[in-house]
Write a structure and sequence with these properties.
Elements (H helix, E strand, L loop, with lengths): L2 E12 L20 E16 L4 H4 L3 E6 L5 E9 L2 E7 L7 H6 L1 H4 L5 E16 L5 E13 L6 E11 L6 H12 L2 E3 L5 H8 L35 H11 L18 H24 L5 H18 L6 H37 L9 H11 L4 H10 L1 H15 L11 H24 L5 H28 L1 H39 L5 H28 L1
Antiparallel strand pairs: 1-5, 1-8, 1-9, 2-3, 2-6, 3-4, 4-5, 6-7, 7-8
Helix pairs in contact: 7-8, 7-12, 7-13, 7-14, 8-9, 8-14, 9-10, 9-12, 9-15, 13-14, 14-15, 15-16
Amino acid sequence: MVDTVREIERKYEPTADTRELPPLPDLTGVDGVAAVVEQGTALLDAVYYDTAARRLAADGITLRRRTGGDDAGWHLKLPVAAGVRDEIRAPLGEGVPRRLAALVRSRTRDAELAPVVRIRSERDVHQLLGADGEPVAEVSVDRVTAERPETGATARWAEVEAELSAGADPAVLDAVDAALTGAGLRRSAAASKLARALAETDGTRTKDGKRTKDGGKPKDGKNGKNGKGGKGGKGGKKKTADKKKSAGKKKADGKKPPEPAARPAGDVVLDYVRAQITAVVELDPAVRRDQPDSVHQMRVASRRLRSTFRSYRAVLDRTVTDPVSTELRWLAGELGVDRDREVLTERIHAGLVELERPLVLGPVRGRLRTWSAARRTGSRRRIVALLDGRRYLALLDALDGILADPPLRTAAGRPAEPVLRKAVDRQYRRFAGSLQETFDLAPGPDRDTAIHETRKAAKRTRYAAEVARPVLGREAKTATSLMREVQDLLGDYQDGVLARAALREIAVQAQAAGEPSFTYGVLYAREEARAAELRDRLPRLSQKHL
């Protein structure tokens, strides 16, 4: 059994001039708090797991086995936003639970999860109650001892945690924050106990008083076959961190970093590629947990990567990216099977809801459910099997390889502005040509196919403009908005084409079962009318783009 709890908390530490915690202020009467109940002291003992290369810690993820307290068990914490994490719990056991290991597989791949830090805490718990007597928050004072199993290096500190109770008003934390900071505390510099433990045992003394040879730093573990560490492969994390540090700041020699247009084209393209790869990896656990829209968002990130590799072949060597694009196309296709069915079912159902009651003859809703269920491919179980498969994990390794050793061409070293503008212009010309071909065709299946191809060309232009937006600014933003408008219009048209085909199929099934097919004909006619309306709007596209 696995439970998920949304954790909203803030951590506090003493100010810089002292390591001693000041006395906890009386929180009774703080806005939203009517009473404070002492819960006593709990002894917590947690062993944190990670790969040798600290891949989970690098992404702000913690995996631990904890005893003591009222929530003993395995806890996996996935970041949601600043100060917000989803804590996924599983019962105590000796090995890492398979469900939890699967949720971090996009980070760990084939690397082993092993103990990296043991953290023992003596926790004094103070429960804050609202006017109705229900808990609104919990404030705890922790005296912490951390130890690295492989070196024996230790660290000790004290901290305060304030955690919002389930369903409570987040404003309570703001009020508690004001009271705690007013009493001489400050927000903790470390995002978690694990982060602080790793930092403070890095180079500390071992139990025998000697300093570790390498400062307690972890050795890189194997990453599948290539032996490279972490997301982004060898050097990938460092490059990313270096870029973040330099963004918007002067260099050490006093010179400002180059303007976006003067940056090398390869840097700009790789920034976008890195963001999409990160999205795929971070969406993996959300897809496994069946979170809303997660499958669609992973599919979009896959498409963005494919489109970028195609549009920026002058920057990235296609002999390297083409095989990866093939695998990204496979992934997007697999993710889209049930998504497309759901969208189509929702469209037909929405049309059915709009019909007047006398036009609905027979068990139409039941027939629609039967048709949709018959097209279901196993949905979540099939997708989870896909994410556990060797082909998908090999794709993630290949994406890491592109970041670790970018296949840059000569144009990658040139100033970004002319290189990116040329790529966007080329995609736009292809879109405009495809749109013209659509107008040259008579209404019918060939034109429907051409409209679908024009929509894909618009999507590639939009993604190319997204890559260039840091450089081309408002110009790229405008192009992105225009192409999104085109996508919406042509996407609506394509969905109608598929809906009409589906309605024919459902009508045949209804007739075979001896049910009335009249309603499906009405829905079909309305889809045709909607298609005609959309075709009438196409000339406005020509005024903008031809």
